[in-house]
Every structure is written in C-alpha cells, then in structure tokens.
Fold this sequence. Notes:
N-utilizing Substance Protein B Homolog, Chain A; 4-stranded antiparallel beta sheet; 14% strand; disordered C terminus
Amino acid sequence: MIAAARLVSYQILLQIAASDAHGDELLRSAEVDALSAQDRHLTTTLVLGTLRWQIQLDELIRGLLARPDAKVAPEVATALRMGAYQLLHLDRVPAHAVINDSVELVKQGREKGAAGMVNAVLRKVQGAGSRVQGTEKRSALSVQHSGNPGQAAVAMAARFAHPGWMVERWERRYGIEAAEAICRWDQEPTGIFLRVVEGGAEPEGVETEPGHFLSGARRVVRGDLGRSVLARDGRVRVQDEGSQLVAEVLAAQADLVSAGRAAPLRVLDTCAAPGGKTAILAERLAGAEITAVDVSRGRVLAARAERFAAPGRGRVRWEVADVTKMELQPEWDLILCDVPCSGTGTMARNPEIRLRVKEEDLVRQHRRQVAILRAGLEGLKEGGRLVYSTCSLEPEENEDVVAEVLGAMAGFRVVPVEGILDRLAEGGIVTGPGRKRLRSATEGGFLRTLPGVHPCDGFFAAVLERQGTDSREQGSQLRE
C-alpha cells in the first residue's frame, strides 16, 4: 500500500504540473486536512521540496535516462522527481520505501510500462546521492570564491535550483550577496506567520513568538495550527509579515487624509482577493466605508466566505470588477493597488513560480500594472493617498511602473515611506526592533523587502498622493 502522504503529494504535484494551480492553496485542501498531523507535515515537505529542487532534479534524472532526450510523461516525471527529492534531501525516509511507492504510483496510472524504468533510475539516484551532494558543495564554494559575478550567478542558479536569468537579474540589481540570500531563503521551509487581531487571544495549542516587525504578528514555533479553534474561525489568520506591513502602511495614512473632516473615510481595495490586507484595513479603520473589488468571481466568493474577526468586517462591500474598466471618479480617500505580479518575492512558499515565469512575462505584467495604477490614481481625492504594491523583486513591476505612470499623469507625488514607518513605530504597530530591521528596507522613498535579507517575503510598496491645486502651483514655482 502506498503511504497516504506520498499518494496525496503525488496527486498535488500532478495537478500543479498540468494547471496553473498553486501549491500553497492545494495544501489547504480537504484531502490534506483529512491526513494525520504527521502526514500533513510530510505532504507539505514533499510537495514544496520537490518543487523547490525540480530544476536540479530534472537535470540529474535526464542524465540517468537511457535516452536523455526522450519525452517523459507527466505521471512518470512526477514520480521520478518526488522519489529523487526524498532520496537526496530527506535523511529519515527509508530508500526502499521511497522506491517501492514511486514504482507503485506509476503502476496505478496510465504509464504502467514505465514502472521498471522508474525503479532503475531511482536506484541510480540512490547510488549517486553522495556524489551529487559533493557536487553541490563544490558549486557552493565556486559561488563564494568566484571573482566573476556573472559566473557566480550561473553557479548559484545551478546550486539553488533557480532559473539562471532570475539570479543574474538579482545579482545585477541587488548584488551577489543579496542574490545568494534570496536563493537560500527560497530553498528553506518558510515559517508560519500569523496575524493576531489587536486585543485578541493567542491560538490555543500552538507555541508562538513575536514577529520580526509588527506587534500584531506572531511566528509559529511549534504546534498544530489546524487544531486551533481561533485559527479555524479566522480570529487568527496565516499571513506573511511583509504582506501585513503593506496594509499597515496604507492604514497609517488615515488621520492625515481625514484631518478636519466629519465624513467617514472612503477606502478602495482594487485587487482585494483573497482579502488578508482588506481584513487589516477593516481592523484599523474604524468607521471607514471599505469597498473591495477583484476581477475573479471565484476569488471574491471565497473571500466573502472567509471568516475573519477583524472589527468592521461588516463594512466591507465586495464586488466583482476590473478596476481598469470602472472609470473611477476622484472620490476615494485611500486606495490599495496590490496588483497581480510575477510573485518572485514569494517563491519560498510558492516554488512553482520559478517553473512558470519567463523573463518576457514581465513586459505583459508591466502593461497590466500600469493600467491598474493609472485607474487607481484617477479615483483619488485631492490629498488622498494610494499604496501601489507587489510581491515581485523585478523593477519592471515596481519602480518602473511608478515612474511611467507619474511621468504621464500630473498632480501626484511619491510620499517617502521612511516617515510612515516612523509613525507606525511611534504608534506601537511596528516594534522598536522591527523599525531597526526595516532601516535597510527603504530605497528611493519606497519600501522593499528582500527574502533572506529581511525575514519575510519580498514586497515592494510605493505611497502616492494626489496633490491639491495650491501644492501643484507651489511646486511649479519652485521648479521655475
């Protein structure tokens, strides 16, 4: 009988290979929830670990095939990758159980005839294990001692199973040390970070410690979060700390844009699903009228059904809409444009991204992001503020979008994020140690977290303001 964790992992990996599904979403499915806590942990390890190392595993497996150029069916390739990952990266898993289950997985599918080949290849992988690990160590040394940054980036990409073009870009943009930190972070299991609603209880049966930046964040140290009633009810939410920080940056603008006004704030979240940042806005902005829109009906329905205990949740109005077609009028005080992107800052928890994103995709993403930001800025009142954010590390999706839009639209300015972080620290939302850690996360007035350099996903955020007529005239006079 095939071990339950291997069977579910194999099915998830096949689904990812055949669709645009994401591993972190599939790992929250009913099939995974039905497993024991031990098997859930192993399933997460198998799925994410196989995806993280797939580029390297495929190269190894091709070299062990009798015909390296032969096309391998997805079912066979998945069994080989998952088996090879266990043999090379998991010390406590018996090799015979790995090989037997891999063969049985293939026998149960349409490619029964490939069972013998799977057995032979995985036995070769088992024998090659120490040699492969020695090659990895030599590659790591070449990364550290190469005097040529380009060569170091190529070696690093091979060592950490990343596309070469990605690592070369990071090396050029952020430097070789930061590029290595990103790659290393991507290959390690991510910690689970929680959002605890202010004044709320800690999840029962789970040991946590404070987050790195925010007073409302916790990192799970040990325990089964799936058994926590608070987590199941949404009173404690799983959310990366970088993601939480973006929402806090927007919420911190509320008192500035509402000074001297009695009317409630009007807040728009333009690409809101799955709703984690929306929940923080509802929690922080008491009395605000919040509209959350997303182009995906399925994601909106899921967000509506999501139970979270943020104060003011009942004030969030959800709509299925494409913000670029809404023809917004300047009537919104605060707007969040957390736009769809390549997601290269989240590859530790979404490793399949490196297998799907191509460099040419960034141009397409850029065009869409420019359209969303332009539409959002059209909806800002004078003095209103907008946060443009992504979970991408690529300049085409970040500062290049801001520069292009501000170059084409007059009357807007970038608000430096440093002062906003100081205000968050003064209010106790960002902790004292967190503010120190975030000193290196600001550049050019923008917020930018880098995985491994900072202990969270990679996020970019720019704060933009629509200036009043007087402000624009003063700016014009100063320029003259």
